[in-house]
Every structure is written in C-alpha cells, then in structure tokens.
Amino acid sequence: MSSITCCTGFIHSGKPSGDEESINGVKCYVAKPKVSNSHAIVIATDIFGYTLPNSRLIADSFAKEGYYCVVPDLFEGTEPPADVMTDFDNLMSKTATLSQKVYAFFRVLWYGPKFLLFNSASSGIKIIEKVLPDVKKSYTKVGVQGYCWGGKIAALMAHHDGLIDAATAAHAGGLTYPTDIQNIKVPTFFMNAEEDHAITVEQKQTIERIMNEKGSKFGSKIYPGVKHGFAVRGNENDGNDKTQRAQAFLDSVSFYKRIWE
C-alpha cells in the first residue's frame, strides 16, 4: 500500500460461478473454461484478497475466454475486510462527518499495519510458486495477472525466465524504478491509470520507454480519466470507470492471445 488511494474502490455486483479448491495446500478460487485453450492465468490480487467478488468475477471472465484461471489466497486471512474501502474513501472525503473520519481512521490503523506486518511481495510470490507446478502439469502456458499489490508481484515474477510465461500488471504500486522494469525478462504488459497518486507520471513514462525498448512482446497503456485501482475496483455506476475497466480486461486477453496463439 503506497498510499490511501491504493485501497479505495467498490465491490462489484454479480455472483462468481467458480469453485474453491486447495492446490498444493493453498486455498484458491478456480474458474474453469467450458472449452480450454490450454493456457492458464493466475490472478495476484489486491490487498482485499481472493474472497473479494471483483477478483473472482475477473477469473470467471477469463474462463469465458477459454483460460483456466486460479485466484490463490495470498494473505491467509490477514487481508482487511472489503468494507474498509469505505473507510479509506471517508478519510479522503470532503463531505464525510468527523465521526465517520474518526471511525475510519481507527479501522485503517487497525487493518493497515496488520496487513503490512504479515505480508510482502516475496511472501505472495512464494504462495503462487506453490500453485504453479500443479497448474503447469495441465497447461502449456501460464501467465500472472496482478492488480495493485498483486501488480508488483506479477512484475517481480516476470524477472525470472521459466517461472511464468507472461505477466500483466494493473496499477502496480511499490515498484523500484527503473530497476524493477529493466529486470523484466518475460513478455509483460502494464495497465496504468491516468490519475494515480501511487504511480507518478515520470514512472509511467519510464515503464512505457523500457517496454518499448524491449520489443513487440512487451507493452504498456494508460487509461484515461480513471484512478488507481480502476481495473479491479472501479465504480460500476461510473460510465468511464466501467468502460476503462472492461477495456483493460480485453487488452490483457488480447495481449495473451497475441504472444501465445
């Protein structure tokens, strides 16, 4: 969590249609395609974890595109509850009452340090690494799609040849520039918000420059008029948020199809 804006957002409507399974001892949400394209996606979630409907609905959307999709439990119960999004919103709001702000402050103070105490990008990577061998037994290509906290995980996993076959990272906070971008080896696509306090304009320009230098299997895109978290926690009732969120998903699918098919 590099700023308060990393944790604001909305819980999306819809009922996930996949199943909860244990993969090599890791609790996971699994969405299976009716017709498989022999490729798999692992979703590295934002700080609200694998039970958040948003991430599960994205997994369902990947399954509809023919991908076997796994959402591992990266935080093992240490993630904040989803309604903490409202508390972060109230802390930033100009219209929230004093009592709302005080209540929000203490909830954030309770859940934020607890999350950071028990979690790191490296701990999330280790959990995904437990899941990968089982997935690779059945699928020829495996990509990691990360959101916010998970975006950093996806980018760092892309440093290693042979660990994953591709990565997509949406509003990946907490990266070290330019090193973490330069060290990327496998095909990677970054999806960034135009208005993002967690990723500066200069950092987005660095991503774009280095991805362009790496060639046609690498890329980045900035989505207009949206904020950090839009691709996973965007407002369904905001027309542009909804449009850009949908476009980010379609762009990630197009990226995987282009490099794998």
UniProtKB/TrEMBL annotation:
One of its GO terms (molecular function) is hydrolase activity. Residues 27-258 form the Dienelactone hydrolase domain. InterPro entries: AB_hydrolase_fold (IPR029058), Dienelactn_hydro (IPR002925). It comes from the Eukaryota. SUPFAM superfamilies: alpha/beta-Hydrolases (SSF53474). Pfam families: DLH (PF01738). PANTHER family: DIENELACTONE HYDROLASE, PROTEIN AIM2. This is Dienelactone hydrolase domain-containing protein. It comes from Boothiomyces macroporosus. The lineage of its organism: Eukaryota, Fungi, Fungi incertae sedis, Chytridiomycota, Chytridiomycota incertae sedis.
